[in-house]
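#lab-general

N.A. 3:47 PM
ok so I finally got the sequence cleaned up, no stray characters, all 212 residues accounted for. can someone with queue access submit it? mine expired

B.Y. 3:52 PM
send it over

N.A. 3:53 PM
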Amino acid sequence: MPHMSARNYGFVDWAGDTGFKFSAGSSIYLAVSLVSSSDYERLRTGLSRLRAHLSVPAHYEFHFAVNPERIRSAFFDALVSLPWDGAVFLIDKRQLDSDFRQLTESEFYGFAVASLFTFASLSLLQSKRILVDDREKHSARLSAIRVASSPMLRARGLQRTPKMRGEPAKKWDGLQLADMLAGAVVERETGEEDYLRDLTVSCEIYRYKPED
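B.Y. 4:20 PM
back already:
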């Protein structure tokens, strides 16, 4: 696992998809999350200890969509005492007008991440680099996110916008935390388990609101 000092990195991941064919399995919600830590080494150590406590491999990936309830609950219980901050932007795609259906997948993710950056606290945006869950360091999706989010970051008053690159979530505990956070927000929105009930101080949640 790469070594990091405080606030060198922010992490972006999501839950859901960009499709609109709801009857064919497209998700109703898309949640995009951004997390950071003032003490990443302590966060890493805490999650390493959690893996040992759960008797899972040292490189076990915390991934909301595939982890069983036992692991989800233990993960969010552990977060109460670990150093992290996060923000989530939740989109109910049923509220979007027809223009959004013309966007490419990459453009839609660009819109979602830029919207998140519009609302997230500045402390989350002032990382030197932002890592986005992606198999490629410089993909079409990353390019679209950069294009959409750079004006938003400058509008927030950042003199130097964070550099962005893609990284696979399995390599970074921060990306796994972002994934779990996004998944938990969608889970709560659908009326199921509320894994975030004890984490409201650490997590900002914003919802897309249609323009009047």
